[in-house]
Amino acid sequence: MNIFYAPPSQINNGFIELLDQEANHASRVLRAREGDPLTVVDGRGGRYQGTIRRITKKSMQVEIENNDQEPVPSPRLALGIGIIKKRDRLEFAVEKAVELGVAEIRLFRSDHSIKENVRMDRLQAIAISAMKQRLRAWLPEISLDHSVEEVLDCSGSARVFAAHEEVDAVKENGIQEQDSNGAKLLMVGPEGGFSDREVQLFKQREAQLVSLGSNRLRTETAAVAFLSQFI
Questions:
Q1: Is the dihedral of CA 10, 11, 12, 14 positive or negative?
Q2: Radius of gyration of the chain (CA)
Q3: For 189-227, how does the pLDDT look when each residue is reduced to its tens digit (9 = 90+)?
Q4: How far is CA 44 from the centre of its chain?
Q5: Which fold, 77-227?
Q6: Is the sign of the CA dihedral 94, 193, 218, 185 positive or negative?
Q7: Rounded to two decimals, what is the model's pTM?
Q8: pLDDT (tens digit, 9 = 90+) per residue, 4-38?
Q9: Helix (H) or strand (E) holding 61
Protein backbone atom coordinates (compact mmCIF):
# COMPACT_ATOMS: atom_id res chain seq x y z
CA MET A 1 0.00 0.00 0.00
CA ASN A 2 1.25 3.47 -0.89
CA ILE A 3 0.09 6.72 0.67
CA PHE A 4 0.91 10.27 -0.36
CA TYR A 5 1.28 13.53 1.52
CA ALA A 6 -0.37 16.89 0.95
CA PRO A 7 -0.45 19.62 3.63
CA PRO A 8 -3.87 21.08 4.53
CA SER A 9 -3.17 24.10 2.31
CA GLN A 10 -3.36 21.80 -0.74
CA ILE A 11 -6.76 20.36 0.23
CA ASN A 12 -9.70 22.52 -0.80
CA ASN A 13 -13.30 22.22 -2.01
CA GLY A 14 -13.29 18.45 -2.18
CA PHE A 15 -10.02 18.16 -4.10
CA ILE A 16 -6.37 17.49 -3.22
CA GLU A 17 -3.50 18.93 -5.25
CA LEU A 18 -0.36 16.78 -5.13
CA LEU A 19 2.71 18.76 -6.15
CA ASP A 20 6.36 18.24 -7.07
CA GLN A 21 7.92 15.07 -5.66
CA GLU A 22 4.64 13.56 -4.47
CA ALA A 23 3.00 14.02 -7.88
CA ASN A 24 6.09 12.77 -9.73
CA HIS A 25 6.34 9.70 -7.53
CA ALA A 26 2.71 8.79 -8.15
CA SER A 27 2.69 9.37 -11.90
CA ARG A 28 6.22 8.54 -13.04
CA VAL A 29 7.40 5.94 -10.53
CA LEU A 30 4.15 4.16 -9.70
CA ARG A 31 2.56 4.87 -13.11
CA ALA A 32 -0.71 6.08 -11.61
CA ARG A 33 -3.23 7.23 -14.20
CA GLU A 34 -6.41 9.28 -14.28
CA GLY A 35 -9.23 7.25 -12.76
CA ASP A 36 -6.94 5.34 -10.36
CA PRO A 37 -7.66 5.37 -6.60
CA LEU A 38 -5.22 7.15 -4.28
CA THR A 39 -4.80 7.58 -0.51
CA VAL A 40 -3.47 10.88 0.82
CA VAL A 41 -2.65 12.05 4.36
CA ASP A 42 -2.33 15.67 5.47
CA GLY A 43 0.12 15.27 8.39
CA ARG A 44 -2.54 16.53 10.83
CA GLY A 45 -4.37 13.23 11.23
CA GLY A 46 -6.52 13.46 8.10
CA ARG A 47 -6.64 10.48 5.76
CA TYR A 48 -8.34 10.81 2.38
CA GLN A 49 -9.38 8.25 -0.23
CA GLY A 50 -10.04 9.60 -3.68
CA THR A 51 -9.72 9.23 -7.44
CA ILE A 52 -7.16 10.87 -9.71
CA ARG A 53 -8.95 13.34 -12.00
CA ARG A 54 -6.12 15.24 -13.68
CA ILE A 55 -2.37 14.80 -14.16
CA THR A 56 0.00 17.50 -15.40
CA LYS A 57 3.80 17.68 -15.55
CA LYS A 58 4.05 19.12 -12.02
CA SER A 59 0.81 18.26 -10.25
CA MET A 60 -1.95 15.75 -9.76
CA GLN A 61 -5.54 16.52 -8.80
CA VAL A 62 -7.38 13.99 -6.65
CA GLU A 63 -11.12 14.15 -5.99
CA ILE A 64 -11.94 13.23 -2.38
CA GLU A 65 -14.49 10.43 -1.97
CA ASN A 66 -13.99 9.46 1.68
CA ASN A 67 -11.99 10.81 4.59
CA ASP A 68 -11.46 10.09 8.28
CA GLN A 69 -9.46 11.51 11.17
CA GLU A 70 -6.76 9.43 12.84
CA PRO A 71 -6.66 9.83 16.66
CA VAL A 72 -3.89 11.91 18.17
CA PRO A 73 -1.01 9.57 19.15
CA SER A 74 -1.00 8.69 22.85
CA PRO A 75 1.09 8.95 24.89
CA ARG A 76 2.52 12.10 23.32
CA LEU A 77 6.25 11.58 22.95
CA ALA A 78 8.68 14.36 22.10
CA LEU A 79 12.36 13.74 21.39
CA GLY A 80 14.96 16.38 22.19
CA ILE A 81 18.24 15.49 20.49
CA GLY A 82 21.54 17.36 20.44
CA ILE A 83 22.76 18.19 16.95
CA ILE A 84 25.00 15.40 15.65
CA LYS A 85 28.13 16.31 13.70
CA LYS A 86 27.61 13.81 10.89
CA ARG A 87 24.54 14.57 8.80
CA ASP A 88 23.69 10.95 7.96
CA ARG A 89 23.53 10.02 11.64
CA LEU A 90 21.23 12.91 12.47
CA GLU A 91 19.00 11.99 9.55
CA PHE A 92 18.94 8.37 10.74
CA ALA A 93 17.85 9.50 14.21
CA VAL A 94 15.04 11.64 12.80
CA GLU A 95 13.85 8.87 10.47
CA LYS A 96 13.71 6.24 13.21
CA ALA A 97 12.09 8.62 15.71
CA VAL A 98 9.26 9.27 13.25
CA GLU A 99 8.88 5.56 12.53
CA LEU A 100 8.63 4.93 16.28
CA GLY A 101 5.80 7.43 16.62
CA VAL A 102 7.14 10.66 18.14
CA ALA A 103 4.85 13.69 17.98
CA GLU A 104 7.66 16.25 18.02
CA ILE A 105 11.41 16.43 17.44
CA ARG A 106 13.35 19.30 19.00
CA LEU A 107 16.93 19.57 17.78
CA PHE A 108 19.13 21.68 20.01
CA ARG A 109 22.61 23.11 20.30
CA SER A 110 24.22 21.81 23.46
CA ASP A 111 27.30 22.93 25.38
CA HIS A 112 29.11 20.03 23.69
CA SER A 113 27.66 20.51 20.21
CA ILE A 114 30.19 20.73 17.37
CA LYS A 115 27.97 21.18 14.33
CA GLU A 116 26.02 24.42 13.93
CA ASN A 117 24.09 24.25 10.68
CA VAL A 118 21.24 21.85 9.99
CA ARG A 119 19.41 21.27 6.71
CA MET A 120 15.88 21.49 8.04
CA ASP A 121 14.40 20.96 4.57
CA ARG A 122 16.16 17.60 4.27
CA LEU A 123 14.99 16.53 7.72
CA GLN A 124 11.43 17.55 6.87
CA ALA A 125 11.53 15.43 3.69
CA ILE A 126 12.91 12.48 5.68
CA ALA A 127 10.14 12.87 8.27
CA ILE A 128 7.47 12.87 5.55
CA SER A 129 8.94 9.72 4.01
CA ALA A 130 9.08 7.98 7.41
CA MET A 131 5.47 8.98 8.17
CA LYS A 132 4.35 7.42 4.89
CA GLN A 133 6.48 4.34 5.55
CA ARG A 134 4.59 3.63 8.78
CA LEU A 135 1.25 4.39 7.07
CA ARG A 136 0.31 7.09 9.56
CA ALA A 137 -1.38 10.47 9.13
CA TRP A 138 0.42 12.53 11.80
CA LEU A 139 3.62 14.33 10.78
CA PRO A 140 5.85 15.26 13.75
CA GLU A 141 6.88 18.88 14.14
CA ILE A 142 10.64 19.48 13.81
CA SER A 143 12.18 22.56 15.40
CA LEU A 144 15.66 23.89 16.18
CA ASP A 145 16.53 25.36 19.59
CA HIS A 146 19.70 27.14 20.63
CA SER A 147 20.11 25.50 24.04
CA VAL A 148 18.83 22.87 26.44
CA GLU A 149 17.12 25.70 28.33
CA GLU A 150 15.03 26.57 25.28
CA VAL A 151 13.85 22.98 24.92
CA LEU A 152 12.87 22.75 28.57
CA ASP A 153 11.13 26.13 28.49
CA CYS A 154 8.90 24.81 25.68
CA SER A 155 8.19 21.45 27.31
CA GLY A 156 5.03 22.63 29.09
CA SER A 157 3.65 19.99 31.43
CA ALA A 158 5.55 17.12 29.80
CA ARG A 159 7.50 14.80 32.08
CA VAL A 160 11.18 15.17 31.19
CA PHE A 161 13.61 12.25 31.02
CA ALA A 162 17.29 12.80 30.17
CA ALA A 163 19.70 10.05 29.13
CA HIS A 164 22.99 10.39 30.99
CA GLU A 165 25.87 7.91 30.94
CA GLU A 166 27.08 8.70 34.46
CA VAL A 167 23.86 7.73 36.22
CA ASP A 168 24.29 4.67 38.41
CA ALA A 169 23.01 1.96 36.05
CA VAL A 170 22.03 -0.28 38.98
CA LYS A 171 20.31 2.17 41.29
CA GLU A 172 18.88 4.84 39.03
CA ASN A 173 18.14 3.54 35.57
CA GLY A 174 14.55 2.50 36.25
CA ILE A 175 12.12 4.86 34.54
CA GLN A 176 9.60 5.99 37.10
CA GLU A 177 6.23 6.32 35.36
CA GLN A 178 3.74 8.53 37.18
CA ASP A 179 1.34 8.89 34.25
CA SER A 180 1.69 6.36 31.44
CA ASN A 181 -0.54 8.44 29.15
CA GLY A 182 0.95 11.84 29.97
CA ALA A 183 3.16 13.85 27.61
CA LYS A 184 6.86 13.01 27.80
CA LEU A 185 10.03 14.69 26.57
CA LEU A 186 13.05 12.43 26.12
CA MET A 187 16.38 14.27 26.00
CA VAL A 188 19.50 12.84 24.34
CA GLY A 189 22.75 14.79 24.16
CA PRO A 190 25.14 15.16 21.19
CA GLU A 191 28.59 13.58 20.90
CA GLY A 192 30.18 14.05 24.31
CA GLY A 193 26.86 13.97 26.12
CA PHE A 194 25.47 16.68 28.36
CA SER A 195 27.75 19.08 30.21
CA ASP A 196 27.83 19.27 34.01
CA ARG A 197 25.95 22.56 33.75
CA GLU A 198 23.19 20.95 31.72
CA VAL A 199 22.93 18.00 34.12
CA GLN A 200 22.46 20.44 36.99
CA LEU A 201 19.81 22.21 34.94
CA PHE A 202 17.91 18.95 34.52
CA LYS A 203 18.02 18.38 38.24
CA GLN A 204 16.75 21.89 38.93
CA ARG A 205 13.85 21.30 36.52
CA GLU A 206 13.07 17.96 38.25
CA ALA A 207 13.85 15.90 35.15
CA GLN A 208 14.60 12.24 35.69
CA LEU A 209 18.11 11.17 34.70
CA VAL A 210 18.09 7.76 33.06
CA SER A 211 20.83 5.27 32.23
CA LEU A 212 20.49 3.35 28.97
CA GLY A 213 22.85 0.63 30.15
CA SER A 214 26.54 0.07 30.75
CA ASN A 215 27.58 0.36 27.09
CA ARG A 216 28.38 3.74 25.58
CA LEU A 217 25.97 4.47 22.71
CA ARG A 218 26.13 6.82 19.78
CA THR A 219 23.58 9.61 19.94
CA GLU A 220 21.35 8.15 17.23
CA THR A 221 21.45 4.70 18.84
CA ALA A 222 20.65 6.18 22.24
CA ALA A 223 17.64 7.99 20.79
CA VAL A 224 16.20 4.76 19.36
CA ALA A 225 16.93 2.79 22.54
CA PHE A 226 15.35 5.50 24.68
CA LEU A 227 12.18 5.77 22.59
CA SER A 228 11.75 1.99 22.50
CA GLN A 229 11.08 2.02 26.26
CA PHE A 230 7.95 4.13 25.81
CA ILE A 231 6.21 2.66 22.76
A1: positive
A2: 20
A3: 998 889 999 999 999 999 999 988 878 889 999 999 999
A4: 13
A5: Alpha/beta knot (3.40.1280)
A6: negative
A7: 0.88
A8: 999 999 999 999 999 999 999 899 888 989 999 99
A9: strand 59-69
